[in-house]
Amino acid sequence: MNSIILLSVLGLGNLFLGFRRSNRLLLPVMMLILGGILTVNFLDWGSTQSFFNGMLTIDNFSVAFTGIVLLTALVLIPFSQKYVLDGESNLAEYYSLLLFSLVGAIMLVSYNHLLMLFLGIEILSVAMYVLAGSDKRNLRSNEAALKYFLMGAFFTGILLFGMALLYGATGTFVLSEISFAVQNPAPGFESLKPMLYIGMLLMLIGIGFKVSAAPFHFWTPDVYEGTPTFFAAFMSTIVKTAGFAAFLKLLVQAFPAANAQGIWLPTLTAMCVLTLLIGNVGAVAQTSIKRMLAYSSISHAGYLLIALVAYNGQLEGASANGILFYSLAYSVATVAAFGVVKLVADARQREDYNGLNGLAKTNPLLAFSLTVSMLSLAGIPLTGGFFGKFFVFSAAVENGYIGLVVFAVVMSMVSIYYYLRPIIAMYMRDTDAETAEAVPVTTFQAGALLLLAALTVLLGILPGLVAGAL
Amino acid sequence: MLTVLLLLWPVAAALLLHFFKGRAARVPALGAALVEFALAAYAALTFNANNSGQFSFNLNWIPSAGIHFAVGMDGLSLLLVLLTAVLVPVILLSAFRRNFENESVFYALVLFMQTGLVGVFTAQDAFLFYFMWEVALIPIYFLAGVWGGVNRARITFKFFLYTIIGSLFMLAGFVYLYFQTGPTADGLSAHNSALASFYALNLTADTQMWVFWLIFAAFAVKMPIFPFHTWQPDTYTEAPAPATMLLSGIMLKMGIYGCMRWLLPVVPMGVDYWQNLVLILAIIGIIYGAIIAIRQQDVKRLIAYSSLSHVGLMIAGVFSLTQMGLQGASIQMLAHGVNVVGMFFIADAIERRTGTRNIADLGGLTRKAPVLTVCFLVLLLGTVALPLTNGFVGEFLLLGGVYQFNAWMGAIAGVTIILGAVYLLRMFQRVMLGPDSSFTETFTDLTGSELALLVPLIVLVFWIGMFPNTFLHLSEGSVMNILNEVVKR
């Protein structure tokens, strides 16, 4: 709860820095704010508190996921330095929107009441709609914002409709009461069942859109491509982490009953298979790294869906740990990837693979950092991504979903193809006229990249630090 | 604890190497490798051949999943750790002759890879084994890809894809086996991945039949066994000489070692079921590699195919499931490592001096470089398996093992010796004897440092050839244990 309050207050306070047009102050202030809140967040570890008549619960689950979300935001901030140096006039507002969107993310990981779920999603999304279009003079950015907003609004409607139907069927918005109503049918519940099931499916669709799971993923590549890279990184990490935590909570706390499982489990499995297929096969065909990362982000939604499918009835167990570890490893690697892509794109004005040619010679640090993150996303040992996949897959194998895991393993073989392409470009191709000059990197950014690479390797060597926390 | 030191020292040295730029990294890198060799030698001297499992170390690595950082050495592990510790300084020294960009990174990657190799040979936990298996792969990908020839990007990509897909199958197999095991001793986790637990599994014959292929896939690609070999000649040719030496000298032993340690005792019934098929594939590889080697014009490619042929025999020996075959494989791993590294070094020395690897372009080196000729001849005869050289002991035992299993197979596999003599002696004749060519006019003999590198290898050729018991003695107990595990079920 401390983190929600602090983020809201400091987000407002941050706007005053914007009035003073003191951009240079913004970056360190943001880092301090986020670092402070990250620390404060963990004060709540080990205790369970309830707020707003039980609509929000702060427990280890929410503290852990809040930690990931805040950490991701913290390491992302240095990559916005170009805006500072360019004297972007609305920077303080962007930062405030980011802080507010974090509030939404935290509500998503700690809700107990569907209203809070809805509020969380909206707070997170509305900020993202604006930020997607923040590059005002760029047509693609405008298109991305419009597309994201229209689609988002449409799917919000679907989500809301689903909630309404659920309320109609169960008479409550509280997760545990929904679960109780489903498990202990009141007289006349039989006739309400179709309403319940349709409501459930509509909610699945609504959240599926937010985490870009297929077949509701179609906006992802276009929006990521148009959105300024810095905010695209935000979307693909924080929105996804929070979205999946919310997803897990919904399934575990509202629909653990067998008859509900009979509906959503096959749906989720089908979504999972489709997401893995579209994400991985789609990524192979891309020539722009940003689009590749967008498809890669879809494919990682597929791996995370496996953990949802394999959940075993408790909020704190193999699935939650799998999602936690996977989200952390994925976020860390993705931030580094988007960070490097942004730095290179800013300097070389290119977003295709050839833009990376010879980067190992001009910028060894960037090349190393992107390599570590690509290896992590591909799930190769010595990186966090390997253990992320390992924990998710073993949760699924333990619950008997061997076929699904085999399919996912085949898909991750495909993924190695496109994750190696940037590495080949950086290390094994020579520079040309356009890529001969070194990409400028500031101390902040170098530090962030080193930290991210170190974290990725640390997670890959000592996964016990995070695994099994829940 | 000694094993942990053997594992950590190279990676620590690799990190420290970062402080030396360019050429300044040469001496510290070699020094680090020699220290590693001293550690391995100390391990060998204090090793008690009558006991299994020594220098063990066990640390709870991922408590929630029952995964341990468990390492230890028995005779077989020790032999391969020794091989690694001997060859890495040699390989580093061979790189001294070249001038390339970012030398410090190059040496650091070699040392980093050494950690992976030692880890593979000493791991006592399935996940640690898999982890180290991949740790060894990543540096070699960069070694071959960054410093390799013209087609390096495409060819190393193929290599990486092949090996990683094989490894993923192995991981799937390990995960399946992991879920068949019982809880850890401390009860923190429902399953564990210790080697001993895998040995103790009671799997049905049907399960073992398919688990066999999951695990074998990784080993089959790495060795490589026919028809999984297509990456090998290209990669060997395209990679820079030191990387080729690492690949052929040490890395392919990971596959054979893996079969002996993680395949035969874990899924013995699966092995029994597929034994004939693997033997046939191995024998096809022997003949096929040898026949193609005869037709090669490129020295490096010729050695690559000869390596394919020799590996086939080692696989056949392992899958004969006889004491003789397994012992032969363990000693032949050493012999092949020594010989192939020496041969590739000489091929590289010739290429550096003449700028060509084409056999037709060369000739008459004997007159210009008598010392090189002698060294080459010794290594070549070792490869051909002349009695008193290292190759003889290994091939004799291997063929004996295969013969014990099936006389016909033994007879066909024995053709390798004849064919080996054909292509190797032909190459020797064309390159070393005959008239001079325009490429070899200014040829010079080996320098002192090159000789310093070859002398240890040549000593080993004769040492293993004349006193094989020094080494056979070490692996005997381990091989017995492995076969006992196989027979037990």
UniProtKB/TrEMBL annotation, chain A:
Function as written in the Swiss-Prot or TrEMBL entry: NDH-1 shuttles electrons from NADH, via FMN and iron-sulfur (Fe-S) centers, to quinones in the respiratory chain. The immediate electron acceptor for the enzyme in this species is believed to be a menaquinone. Couples the redox reaction to proton translocation (for every two electrons transferred, four hydrogen ions are translocated across the cytoplasmic membrane), and thus conserves the redox energy in a proton gradient.
Transmembrane region(s): 25-43, 63-79, 91-109, 115-132, 153-175, 195-218, 230-251, 263-285, 292-311, 323-345, 365-388, 400-420, 448-469
Membrane topology, record value: Multi-pass membrane protein
Pfam families, per the entry: Proton_antipo_M
Self-association and partners: NDH-1 is composed of 14 different subunits. Subunits NuoA, H, J, K, L, M, N constitute the membrane sector of the complex.
Primary localization: membrane
Domain NADH:quinone oxidoreductase/Mrp antiporter transmembrane: 112-413
Gene Ontology biological-process annotations: ATP synthesis coupled electron transport
Family note: Belongs to the complex I subunit 2 family.
Subcellular location per the Swiss-Prot or TrEMBL entry: Cell membrane; Endomembrane system; Membrane
Keywords tagged on the record: Cell membrane, Membrane, NAD, Quinone, Translocase, Transmembrane, Transmembrane helix, Transport
Reaction(s) catalysed by this chain's protein: a quinone + NADH + 5 H(+)(in) = a quinol + NAD(+) + 4 H(+)(out)
Name under which the protein is recorded: NADH-quinone oxidoreductase subunit N
Gene from which the chain derives: nuoN
GO MF term list: NADH dehydrogenase (quinone) (non-electrogenic) activity; NADH dehydrogenase (ubiquinone) activity; quinone binding
PANTHER family with a match to the protein in the record: NADH DEHYDROGENASE
EC number: 7.1.1.-
GO CC entries: endomembrane system; plasma membrane
NCBIfam families documented for this protein: NDH_I_N (TIGR01770)
